[in-house]
Amino acid sequence: MYQYMALPLSAVKGIGPSLEKRLHGRGIDCIGNLLLHLPLNYIDDRRVSPISLLREGESGRIEGRIISKEARGYGKDRQVWIRLADDHGQIRLNFFHAGFMMGDARLTEGRLISVRGVAERWQGQWQMTHPEWCVAEAFEPGYQPHYGALAGLSGKRIGTMIRQALLMLPATATSPLDHILMTQYRMPSLRQALLQLHQPHAADSDMLRHASSRLKSEEIILYLLLMRDKKRQADCPGILLASQRLSSELLEQLPFPLTDAQQSAWQDISADMTSGRRMHRLLQGDVGAGKTWVAALAMASVAGSGYQAALLAPTSVLASQHAITLRELLMPLGLDVALLTGSTRAAERRKILAALASGKISLVVGTHALLTDDVCFDHLALALVDEQHRFGVRQRWALAEKRKPDHQAVHLLAMTATPIPRTLALALYGDMDLSMMRGMPPGRKPIETRVISADKMRPLADGMQRMLDVDGRIYWIVPRIDEDDDGISVDQRVELLKGYFPAAGVLGLHGRMKASVKDEVLQAFASGACKILVSTTVVEVGVNVPEARLMIVEQAESYGLAQLHQLRGRVGRSSEQGYCMLIAGKQASQSSLGRLQQLVRSHDGLELAEADLAMRGSGDAIGTRQHGDAGFRLINLAGDGELIRQWYEHLPDFAADEAMLRFWRPFADSAD
Ligand code: ADP
Ligand code: MG
């Protein structure tokens, strides 16, 4: 089957080079990809209705003989009227801008044509405007799939291409999964499922659901198998940490006791690292749950045992933040933490690399800059990846692979604040063990959240002033206009806010700034030289400024609840009350306002993620970016959780072939 699925689009009748290029632009580069463009719904087109029995406002199929054809108007505005009659009635078909139809030989008087369109009454007569039509012999009664447009091509056009593409799958084509799924689960073959979905003989919803499950199963099972293989590969002897001296010392020096959740996560981790097996663990905890301390304990324990640890962060802002926090915690134990990012100067970088290679430095924090080949360790024992969903599967592993050939496997600890229900997480991150941290450090008050409208700038400014008066700091998140132009809206807001608050040292932060400038801005905000920080969602990830107590988000309705919750998690990081103002855009609909109200009520990231899932498909809960994590094509985490769980529990044993792997996981080896 997959050898046919992999055929280029140009093999399909009717797809030439320019169409092919257009579809390529949307990531559709082979027949199989086109076939995954499933119908949105189906039209019951089994019955031809007499014209006299049409129903006003409803779509109907009729058949009749052309009794007249005339054109009105001139040039491209030419309108064509075709009068059609069957045994019981007549109807007029209207086509605008359709002068070309006058010359169509299939539309001459006396010809029998078949038509589908919405019936209208006008001046006591039936008419249809721009109906679909074909010569009567060409009409095939049945259920017509209705496709969404794609790459600027109409759904109808796509449907024609899909019909042609299906012809390329010979009846003998099978998937490696067909046998198991057909015999043990009574599911159709992959080819049957595709045919049932694209060319159903009946609008039998059970049959359609079954076919769709069959198709999705193909994707899920393959994914789960890959995860299982990863897990098997990951399970091997690992470096055994002999000394808990420094981690115990750190435990005593922490300003507050660990929360129960931190305690139990730390127990999981230290048990792993003293087991002699390699750790491969995902630490999941809501924003602000205190994952950094747990990471610090693991790092202290590694350094205390005479090895090295490296922490990978997705942005330089976050990496430098981590370096600061970790230094505060670990310096008193006599440990230094190096920082390596894209903006580290060449001389400094050389020095750090030499110290890492010789073992003089035991702890390092950095961005992707840590992953390049020239970064070598004397004896790396632990790789930590923060906000792991920001990285592809391979990047996640890349750090752990920086070990010398004669050394044992490096422990991996990935951290994430992305809330996913546990059962689903087990399947999705099936290659890792899971530690979940529920709840928050004590003394944290829930962030008071309000939804306000865009014209309330005056009272909002008053509120901001009150916050500044008590030395609180403020985040202002600007709407994303365009990923590439996010500098513009930031600069505009900075100017506006400088006008209101000339003494607040307003600064802007966005993704296109140089890393070193970003870091400076963040330092200024952390130190208080800047009290209002205008930013795009760059700050979403992990940044920690305890004095920040007010979060303002413009056009809040354009974000997912989970993402807003993450943003909100940037404030209220101390015992002082934090606030979050969600400014709804002028165009915000009633239902999106209702959606935002959930943030006023709920402060549970998991609950909000589930609400997101329920409302808009996997959307932002797993996030558009984050979606790349599992990289599913058909699976929708909202609706398919049950199917995922089912296959996770009963994973069939079979060997995927190369072509199948390449089709479903073309990037499994790269950044995913
Ligand atoms: P996240 O899980 O989002 O990475 P952080 O590690 O940044 O969260 O922690 C958030 C804040 O909570 C930090 O300011 C940290 O100092 C504080 N914190 C962490 N653990 C505790 C604790 N056990 N008791 C009190 N405060 C804590
Ligand atoms: Mg964090």
UniProtKB/TrEMBL annotation:
Pfam families for the chain? DEAD, Helicase_C, RecG_dom3_C, RecG_wedge
Q: List the InterPro entries.
A: DEAD/DEAH_box_helicase_dom, Helicase_ATP-bd, Helicase_C-like, NA-bd_OB-fold, P-loop_NTPase, RecG/Mfd, RecG_dom3_C, RecG_wedge
Q: Does the keyword Plastid apply?
A: no
CDD domains recorded for this chain?
Answer: RecG_wedge_OBF
Q: What is an example of a GO molecular function annotated in this UniProt entry?
A: DNA helicase activity
Q: Name one GO biological process term.
A: DNA repair
Q: Can you give the residue ranges of the Helicase C-terminal domain?
A: 462-614
Q: Which organism is it from?
A: Mariprofundus erugo
What name has this protein been given in UniProt?
Probable DNA 3'-5' helicase RecG
Report keywords, A-Z. ATP-binding, DNA damage, DNA repair, DNA-binding, Helicase, Hydrolase, Nucleotide-binding
User: Which residue numbers delimit the Helicase ATP-binding domain?
Assistant: 272-437
Protein's UniProt keywords contain Ion transport: no
What PROSITE patterns does its record include?
HELICASE_ATP_BIND_1, HELICASE_CTER
